[in-house]
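Illustration 12: Fatty acid hydroxylase superfamily.
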Amino acid sequence: MEFIIFKATCLPSTYSLVMSKGEKEADLGYLLIFPFLMTRVLHNQIWISLSRYRTAKGKNRIVDKGIDFEQVDRESNWDDQIILNGILFYLANMIMPGASHLPLWRSDGFIIVILLHMGPVEFLYYWLHRALHHHFLYSRYHSHHHSSIATEPITSVIHPFAEEVAYFLLFAIPLMTMVFTGTASIAAISGYLTYTDFMNNMGHCNFELVPKWVFSTCPPLKFLMYTPSYHSLHHIQFRTNYSLFMPMYDYLYGTVDKSSDDLYETSLKRQEESPDIVNLTHLTSTDSIYHLRLGFASLASKPYAFKWYFTMAMWPLSCWSGVLIWFYGRTFVSESNTFNNLKLQSWVVPRYTMHYLLQRKQKDLNYLIEEALLEADSKGAKVHEELNGNGELYIQRHPQLRIKLVDGSSLTAAVVVNSIPKETTQVLLTGRISKVGYAIALALCQKGVQVAAMNEDEYQKLQHSGCQFGKNLVLAENYDQKIWLVGEGLTDKEQLRATKGSVFIPFTQFPPKKLLKDCYYHTTPALVAPKSLDNIHSCENWLARRVMSAWRVAGIVHGLEGWNVHECGQTMFSMDKVWEATLRHGYGWWEMGLTQKEQLKAAQGTIFIPFSQFPPRKVRKDCYYRSTPAMVAPKSLKNMHSCEMISPLFILPIFLFASQINGSSRFVEIMATLLILLSYRDNLVLAGSKVLLPRVRGCVEIRLPRQAAEKYGNQTRRSHRLALETSWELQGRIVCMVQYAILTPWVIHSTYSLVMSKGEKEADLGYLLIFPLLMTRVLHNQIWISLSRYRTAKGKNRIVDKGIDFEQVDRESNWDDQIVLNGILFYLANMIMPGASHLPLWRSDGFIIVILLHMGPVEFLYYWLHRALHHHFLYSRYHSHHHSSIATEPITSVIHPFAEEVAYFLLFAIPLMTMVLTGTASIAAISSYITYTDFMNNMGHCNFELVPKWVFSTFPPLKFLMYTPSYHSLHHTQFRTNYSLFMPMYDYLYGTVDKSSDDLYETSLKRQEESPDIVHLTHLTTTDSIYHLRLGFASLASKPYAFKWYFTMAMWPLSCWSRVLAWFYGRTFVSESNTFNDLKLQSWVVPRYTMHYLLQREQKDLNYLIEEALLEADSKGAKVHEELNGNGELYIQRQPQLRIKLVDGSSLAAAVVVNSIPKETTQVLLTGRISKVGYAIALALCQKGVQVAAMNEDEYQKLQDSDCQFGKNLVLAENYDQKIWLVGEGLTDKEQLKATKGTVLIPFTQFPPKKLLKDCYYHTTPAMVAPKSLDNIHSCENWLARRVISAWRVAGIVHGLEGWNVHECGQTMFSMDKVWEATLHHGFCPLSLSI
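Figure caption equivalent — predicted structure in token form:
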């Protein structure tokens, strides 16, 4: 009824049209807004029904994951966006010039819409969508949409309100342009909105419906129209297929998922599923069509309840559906589920209950059911059916049936018998007694319970049935029994005879009418489905969520147990056997909840003890309510700082209030929520930073600012990675590579002001120097990062041996955000604060003030702030984000949530603001203090000890005035000690110094460089590679290398400087250290680029550098892997006394390539220069019977002239049709362009070929995925992905692990099979290419 909001606009629009004097005054568009909104609702509903029908059948289904009630509730407000659009359309019509009195058609308007949608709308949506997948926006907005993996058509419009507004503004571009240019028309606007609805619904419908001939007829359509499978991949993979409706921008920017075409083909070929078990059901009342899973999603997800006003409102649609099913001549699939590898389906007979009661319809019904049974029989299913002689009729007609018919009588009787309280001594049997009633009566009589039959005819039937009821079966003389077993045909008159407190337990499929308010009505026989029963998101008639009728459960249990007999006609199973099997398969007993009315009947002083997970509502003040089953946790259970409960003071009033606004617009919901928050702010229980309000249609979620969260209640703990919503990154980090561009206006203005100043008095040097100071801080921090990583890699004076992972690098990648924030604040202070501009270079009194204030209030306040942050309440919300890093890096010092960052800024501002306010500030004092804090912060987190012992022995009091890296490192490992900022005096004063501080300091100073077991010798590649080293830029090193021209242009001065430095630096250096299976691994870098290896005049210098590295490694007893210069043979000849073993990794590199080639391959093309790896690959493939065609005639002759036995499988290539190309060095662009579409290029060199062809696949260079036990990997090896290691490097590690005491270099190679098996044995995994 939420569309009633348009009543105020529909009536005036109709009145205006009626009262208009001519066509010029009539505004047809104004009148058609509401009908168009209703058409959109109908459009969406048709898509919902179609999608659910097709996915239930399984034909062309894309994602097999089921839908649950949570998703249905989350998506129940899908029509809110239609209401919002309607409101905006009415407002636009009323206040915008050109938006009223629109013509029906204008061609130019259509052209504008098409062009603007293909251009700016698709383009802007693409980049907006990519931005929404950034973790900052994703966690706050877009994750709500992506909560649905298996999508439904309405999933397309389920977004947070802010995101909904953004999309509306985006789609408004063509519409507003038409209005402003005077080209708008009713047809163009309605056509565009219908197009967006259609494409949105199609993209989320979860079944493929675009036929293949569409794209084969018009190939460019592939870039102009997506398919359901294309967008479905976006919901599965998250990082691909971002486009709106036209995939052209995905192809343009390389974000197309490589499996898009494969999934499209697979989905189109997918046939209907053959079910194992079929539940045959039918419609009940005329309203039941809406409560089907194929009907209204929100109605189907709730138990059926008759509403006269709904029936009155929907009667036209009810009549139409009644006529439709009359002519529809076969059953249809309404639901599919999976349970314990069984496929279940529900088939609906298109007839109502009234048809089953009409004798003349029996023949028609029999035909429909018989057709369904035969169809199910052809699919090998078990079928449960309910009427028509309980299935015996069809067995007689078709004795050849392989399916087993199950009517569920045994389980139904078992459920009813187990529903009767154990202390019951007598029951009343009412209504017509079916075979279920017979079974129940017999079971109760055998248990000693007296069964009184109300109807004399039914009593006589029971007596003459041949069953041994004994004396316990009697004819009822009165109606005093408290338990009534109700069959069909119980009249109102009979029911009204029941005494107060009677319990009605039906044993039929339909419950009796509830006439008596002082009696209790049990549900029809039913059980709770286990959680493993997938895809349940609709209620079965009047039953609660995830509750299934006993008849339906019986068929499932029959199939699970594999009972190969019918259960229909007069056949029944043992009730105990069926009941035990049902419970064993996870079905649970379901009882009706305690109602408010029932509570009011309790005597004064009654104690309510719940045995469920949810407590009853506290209605009675004169009774006692116990908690739900719970126990007090022991003190040893740590980190408990949240309550496992919900405050009833909060839930009750909000539930009552929110239920009143059910169905209202989102605006009303939010306003009501705010009122509730103000009314009940003292009793809020916050989940993270959200308030959850229970409502009939789901939950209202609103995010509170941190201040409100602290003021209005406790919060439950969330992940350290998110650090709630208070981290600097999560509060509004500038998601931009060049985030410093935000300072550009101030930089330009400061430079302009200095240039235009007329003298020294007007010149503000401090204003100009803010940006250089910020850049100096960035450089200062980067030097500390590089120094720390270099020293910890060598191991000398290292404090903590724990490795760093990619998660820590990602968490700390925004370390320079606080510098940008400080820069903004400095510029603002300079502009608006008196005394903060035109500062002198030096003032001594300012320095003294800074020193005294830092030693006094700053250190003191920080100490107590820090201790407060370690209280569990604040620690879990704020400081835990900083302490996520045990092995710290210098930049760890500035990784804090935003609120904590602000607190520190205010703390460090005390000396600076004091100088400004007292007029003693100077450029030198401010810049020195900031540099001091950066230096001490970086030093305290660098993870290696660098303060020499003589410093403290020369001046002992310095121990209280300066901490050391080891001192603060203990704070990160012990948590509850060493709280001080930079001066430990307050730790000594308040007794929080860690007792092991001095010992760790001594130990760290004495620690020597590590002697590695295995050394990987590598070199720089391009001029940009220096930044991608582990010692370079941390965030770049943690991602695969990719050339970016703009980055190269921006960094060329530093690149030139580093190149000169590498030229003069005369020895290799350590860049990385790892541990694996008790082996110590190190990577050493030769300070030369790839270009040096190609210059003949540099060979002597290179040989010297590598030889020096080998001799140094030899003195440490390591195994060395090296790459060039005769594959190591040169150094063995020069140094025959070498104890180290040189491993060039050729065997493993060849094995990786051979195992990367698909098994069904019959021929490959060998290209480029063929190294010994190429020889080994060619020989292995020829011996396997694969034809190897050499592209180059010279290389072919070399292979033929070698001693290897290639046989007839080695040939000279006559064409380039081979689909597998093995690529060596020297492959030219011209040669590569000859490759046919779909060719896979697999390099066997250390450098990949240039990617020229978009229709071909490029495998990575030989590499393998590192096992998880390989520690301290947090940088990428060149262009390889995270935790992927080149085969040459892996070979050295495996060599050391296996203890092979021989060289592998020169012409020596190991057995490829032996090396491959050893590599897999040690946990390295092959890296495959998805095609």
